């Protein structure tokens, strides 16, 4: 039987998933028993029974589909809450337009800094009509996307990235991407020998480049650490995170009461936790946010985020409150820098994935193909990996028997299909219901998938997209895939190949921060402390200030449209800039930066903006230079500097005090709206 401790929800399946549990809604039919222990939804609404295999796929009962389904990434926009509240007459440059010009530049600087603003941002001020989500005003549907598909019909993690990059904005980015390269003896050697020829406003400093790509945001401490240790030694330390001491904030995670509870304890205490308003799935997300901001194990956290998009299980699925924290701890985090085949096998025996993709309901005489399909399409070989619908069905038959009972993984031999299977190049007699033999057959197949050449390429393409460029060179992808195969899916050798490749070091400024990355980097660069402000009054609230503050960040990220493990569908978030072009989201991020500078969230402690620079220069131009060096680790261009001086209504030679004559918060916020902060 299905886990009876998971409460039902109403079905809302408009994509054709098994209506008893769509991954985006988690609905489970409480009336799931039939003479065969299974009830599937017929398109006409009547239950359908059969003694032979019945297929429940993305198009509904008895309607399996091809390997290309359809989920669209929707990004939010929060409007213009306060970006124009400081527009004053008589200033040389309006703050609103200056901010838009600064932030909008980040939309195109990766493609060559050809324009001042994207069409979406320009449209805020009546300069141009709003375009589509790729930064164009006309979409003719003929862009070179995989199989001619639009983004809304693309599902796989890599394929959706390629689809978005088929737009006009994507083509502009491609023209500025680094081309082929080579591997050096190590990262430091590659950094020293690689010239940066792409157009970018970022400083072509390899230390800053590494800090931006291998962390969630460069800070003075991180940059100083890399310079002191050297590139190779710093990376060796980051690749051995267990030897890095936990930070103060990580120790404070003990204030999230459900984080330390086991799956069994979460099940047993469900009613009590509900009465207290504790939400385990949200506290897990908030712990992840805290680690992204404050952990010194930054490369590890970047890889945790990468795998949470690649091997994706949504935090908010029905049952996530019990099982998702364990999936994060025992699957993703346990193997983030280890072995992907081991991660993949562990995932396929974890209740979170088995419930999320309906495997608990699949049996020999009523087969649900959701997990079998996603194992091929999303988690290993990819949509172009060479599999067919017959392969999906064969895989679904082979995987029958795996499920969840009493909150734990179980194998039910009576549900397992017995018979020879052939999937891609894998064959197995699969001639026994004996649990050990049947499980061994399934694990052999999953291991085969995890080590398949198409999986090596798929993982390599995704890693190169995350760390190098929205359009990574084929030379690098091929090299990473070769390393993956030679090392049987070990993650660290692949990362070392990546960091030892000239393509990585040549790609300065070729990635734009997604909404979550922008906000986390803002917290990091402003040096926000996890301790509560002295002026904070927690009242009689049962949650600590730290826990409340993390919830506030979580809510803001939801508003921005991206938060850890937040994608409801199993494809994970897109990892390319043109999937995230939203003027409202960009403005909302700037306003949050303004709130942080003002210290509005008293659950944390902030450096006052006039204290960000230890010894502020006496003239406005020099002060902007010093503040930019503090916040974005480099000076701004002459044009950007002029825009920021315009925000304050002063010239470069104007004498200013530590408060920038009262404009320091506006100036700092403008720097955080610059392309130097939006790019990584």
UniProtKB/TrEMBL annotation:
Region (Disordered): 1-97, 126-158
High-level lineage: Bacteria, Bacillati, Actinomycetota, Actinomycetes, Micromonosporales
InterPro entries named among the record's database cross-references: DUF1800
Compositionally skewed regions (Polar residues) per UniProt: 147-158
Taxonomy, superkingdom: Bacteria
Low complexity bias: start-end ranges: 57-75, 131-144
Compositionally skewed regions (Basic and acidic residues) per UniProt: 10-21
Name of the featured protein: Uncharacterized conserved protein, DUF1800 family
């Amino acid at each position: 039987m299905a886990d009876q401790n998971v409460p039902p929800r109403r079905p809302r399946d408009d994509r054709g998933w098994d209506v008893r549990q769509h991954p985006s809604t988690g609905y489970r039919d409480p009336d799931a028993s039939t003479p065969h222990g299974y009830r599937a939804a017929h398109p006409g609404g009547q239950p359908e029974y059969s003694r032979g295999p019945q297929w429940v796929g993305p198009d509904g009962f008895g309607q399996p589909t091809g390997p290309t389904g359809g989920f669209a990434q929707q990004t939010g926009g929060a409007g213009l809450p306060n970006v124009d509240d400081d527009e004053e007459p008589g200033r040389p440059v309006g703050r609103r337009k200056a901010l838009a010009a600064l932030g909008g530049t980040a939309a195109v600087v990766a493609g060559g800094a050809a324009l001042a603003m994207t069409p979406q941002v320009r449209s805020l001020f009546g300069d141009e009509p709003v375009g589509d989500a790729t930064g164009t005003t006309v979409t003719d549907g003929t862009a070179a996307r995989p199989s001619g598909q639009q983004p809304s019909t693309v599902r796989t993690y890599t394929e959706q990235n390629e689809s978005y990059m088929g737009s006009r904005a994507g083509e502009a980015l491609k023209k500025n991407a680094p081309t082929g390269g080579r591997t050096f003896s190590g990262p430091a050697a590659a950094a020293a020998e690689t010239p940066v020829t792409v157009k970018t406003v970022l400083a072509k400093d390899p230390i800053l480049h590494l800090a931006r790509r291998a962390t969630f945001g460069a800070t003075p401490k991180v940059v100083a650490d890399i310079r002191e240790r050297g590139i190779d030694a710093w990376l060796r330390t980051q690749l051995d995170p267990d030897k890095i001491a936990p930070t103060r904030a990580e120790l404070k995670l003990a204030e999230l009461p459900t984080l330390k509870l086991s799956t069994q304890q979460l099940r047993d205490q469900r009613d009590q936790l509900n009465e207290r308003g504790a939400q385990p799935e949200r506290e897990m997300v908030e712990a992840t946010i805290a680690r992204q901001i404050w952990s010194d194990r930054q490369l590890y956290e970047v890889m945790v985020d990468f795998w949470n998009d690649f091997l994706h299980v949504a935090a908010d699925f029905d049952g996530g409150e019990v099982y998702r924290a364990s999936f994060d701890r025992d699957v993703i985090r346990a193997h983030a820098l280890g072995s992907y085949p081991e991660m993949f096998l562990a995932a396929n025996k974890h209740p979170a994935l088995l419930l999320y993709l309906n495997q608990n309901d699949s049996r020999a005489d009523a087969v649900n193909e959701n997990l079998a399909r996603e194992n091929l399409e999303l988690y290993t070989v990819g949509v172009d990996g060479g599999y067919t619908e017959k392969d999906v069905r064969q895989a679904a038959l082979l995987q029958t028997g795996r499920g969840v009972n009493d909150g734990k993984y179980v194998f039910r031999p009576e549900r397992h299909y017995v018979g020879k299977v052939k999937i891609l190049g894998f064959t197995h007699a699969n001639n026994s219901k004996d649990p050990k033999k049947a499980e061994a057959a399934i694990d052999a197949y999953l291991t085969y998938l995890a080590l398949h050449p198409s999986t090596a390429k798929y993982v390599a393409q995704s890693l190169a997209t995350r760390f190098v460029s929205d359009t990574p060179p084929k030379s690098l992808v091929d090299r990473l895939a070769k390393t993956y195969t030679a090392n049987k899916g070990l993650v660290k050798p692949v990362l070392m190949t990546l960091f030892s490749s000239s393509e990585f070091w040549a790609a300065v400024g070729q990635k734009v921060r997604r909404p979550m990355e922008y906000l986390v980097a803002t917290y990091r660069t402003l040096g926000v402390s996890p301790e509560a402000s002295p002026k904070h009054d927690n009242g009689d609230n049962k949650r600590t200030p730290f826990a409340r503050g993390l919830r506030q960040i979580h809510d803001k990220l939801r508003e921005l449209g991206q938060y850890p493990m937040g994608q409801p569908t199993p494809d994970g978030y897109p990892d390319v800039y043109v999937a995230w072009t939203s003027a409202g989201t960009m403005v909302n991020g700037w306003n949050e930066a303004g709130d942080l500078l003002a210290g509005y969230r008293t659950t944390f402690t902030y450096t006052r903006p006039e204290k960000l620079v230890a010894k502020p220069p006496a003239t406005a131009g020099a002060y902007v230079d010093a503040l930019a060096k503090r916040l974005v680790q480099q000076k701004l261009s002459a044009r950007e500097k002029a825009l920021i001086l315009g925000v304050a209504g002063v010239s470069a030679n104007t004498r200013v005090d530590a408060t920038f004559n009262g404009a320091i918060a506006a100036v700092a916020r403008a720097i955080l709206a610059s392309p130097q902060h939006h790019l990584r």
